[in-house]
# Entry
Amino acid sequence: MASAGQLHMLYTCPFCWKVRGLLEHLDLDYEPVQVNPMKAKKTLPSAPDWTKVPVWVDAKGEIIVDSTTIMKHIDSQNNGGILWASSDEARRDKWVEWVDLHMSKATIPILYGGLFSALKTTTRVSKLEKFGFISKRLYAWAGFPIMWGIIARSRVKKDGRTPKQLWHDLLGEFTDSFDNSTFFGGEKPDLVDLTAFGYVRSISPYPQFSKLTDHAAGMAWYKAVEATLKA
# Structure
C-alpha cells in the first residue's frame, strides 16, 4: 500500500491525535515523523512560516498545516470528502468550531490542573516525546510548575469548574447534540466525531483519563468511535 503522506507530529499533542484518529479510521498507511519539541521551529517542513504540529505532507508533496484543515484535506484526497459532507452544514460547522474551541482548551486543565498530576504528566511527556538527553530532564522537572502554576491554574480559576466537571459537562453537551443517534454523524462517525474523539483520546495515556470514564454517554460514544479504527 502506497503511503498517503507524512505526519510531522508530537506523540502527546491533542491536535496530532485528531489527525491520527482519522488516518486510523480510514486505514491509511502513512509515515509518522516524531519531532523534537525543542527543534520544531527549525525542522518542520512548514518552517519558518508555520512552526506548530501537526504538519501533513501528502503523497504529492503538498504541505498542509492546522489540524482541522489537514483532516479535511485527507478526507477529500483519500475518501472523496465523505466524512466532511453533511446535509446540515450549519450544524456541522457550528459543532466542529465548538469542539475545536472548548475541548482543546479543556485538555490542559485535566492533565495539569493539580500539582502532582502536572508532575506525572510532564514526566510522562518527557518519556514519550523525542527530547534530547538534557531537555528531557529539564522538561520533566521544570515544565510542570509552569504548566500547573501559570497555565492550568489560571484556566481552572477562570472557568470555575473542576477539570472533571468541565469534561463531564462538555461530553454531556456534545452527546446531547446527537438526537438519539450513536454518533454526531448519525449511524457512522463523521469528521466532527473524529475531531472530538482525538481530543478525548489525547488524555487516554494518562491516569487522569479515569476522571472521564464514569460519564456513561461520553464513554459509550468514545468506545463506538474507537471500534471504527482500523489500526
Residues 113 and 153 are 6 Å apart (CA to CA). DSSP finds nine helices and four strands in the chain. The chain has a mean pLDDT of 88. The first strand starts at residue 5 and ends at 9.
